[in-house]
TrEMBL record:
Keyword line: Iron, Metal-binding, Vitamin C
Record flagged with keyword Metal-binding: yes
Pfam families: 2OG-FeII_Oxy
Segment forming the signal sequence: none
Superkingdom of the source species: Eukaryota
Matches recorded under InterPro entries: IPNS-like_FE2OG_OXY, IPNS-like_sf, Oxoglu/Fe-dep_dioxygenase_dom, Plant_2OG-oxidoreductases
Protein's name according to its UniProt entry: Fe2OG dioxygenase domain-containing protein
Domain Fe2OG dioxygenase: 32-132
GO molecular function, one term: L-ascorbic acid binding
Length: 184
């Protein structure tokens, strides 16, 4: 995250000099932030072409650390095509989540991904989603907003996310789309 913040041209503030703009200490807030772990088991499916292990979605949070076993299944959308992420033993897949897209005001894009199943092998994965504490608001960094770069996303928090996914089946990048502000 420090490298990402640097790449955005945002200089992290000194903790003692915290001002009203809470973004000053994003790294610290993330260290004390939320972690959600999801363990997934995809049993073999006799008719894999008729279903998906997980529908297309992008993840809650800034970054997801994903550990997959040796069985293929994860696909990301790249240039309108689904591309399989080849499992690499003992390596994490790092995915950009919705909160990083919001915080960076669209400079980073959260990755749309899905999971396909197969007829032969079961597959397991563990995803670890990292963000600010659950009671914090995620918003575009004020340091990235000016007249030339208007704010593109509404403020969001965990409650609005839960309210949204409870109200409808999560499909595609729906939640993020719901945070997008129409052009000013
Ligand atoms: O099983 C996978 O490889 C991906 C799981 C996933 O996308 C998730 O848990 O959010
Ligand atoms: Fe995911």
């Amino acid at each position: 995250m420090e490298a990402i913040i640097e790449s955005l041209g945002i200089i992290e503030g000194n903790q003692e000099k915290e001002t009203e703009g809470k973004d000053e200490n994003l790294v610290k807030e993330l260290k004390d932030g939320s972690q959600m772990m999801v363990a997934n088991l995809y049993p073999p499916c006799p008719e894999p072409d008729l279903t998906l292990g997980m529908p297309p979605h992008s993840d809650y949070g800034f970054l997801t650390l994903l550990l997959q076993d040796e069985v293929e299944g994860l696909q990301i959308q790249f240039q309108q095509k689904w591309v399989t992420v080849q499992p690499i033993s003992m390596a994490f897949v790092i995915n950009v989540g919705d909160h990083l897209e919001i915080y960076s005001n669209g400079k980073y894009k959260s990755v749309l991904h899905r999971v396909v199943v197969n007829a032969v092998k079961s597959r397991t994965s563990v995803a670890s989603l990292h963000s600010l504490p659950f009671n914090h608001t995620v918003r575009p960094s004020p340091k990235l907003i000016d007249e030339a770069n208007p704010k593109l996303y509404a403020d969001t928090d965990f409650n609005s996310f839960i309210a949204y996914i409870s109200s409808k089946e999560p499909k595609r990048k729906d939640f993020l789309d719901s945070r997008k502000l129409t052009s000013p």
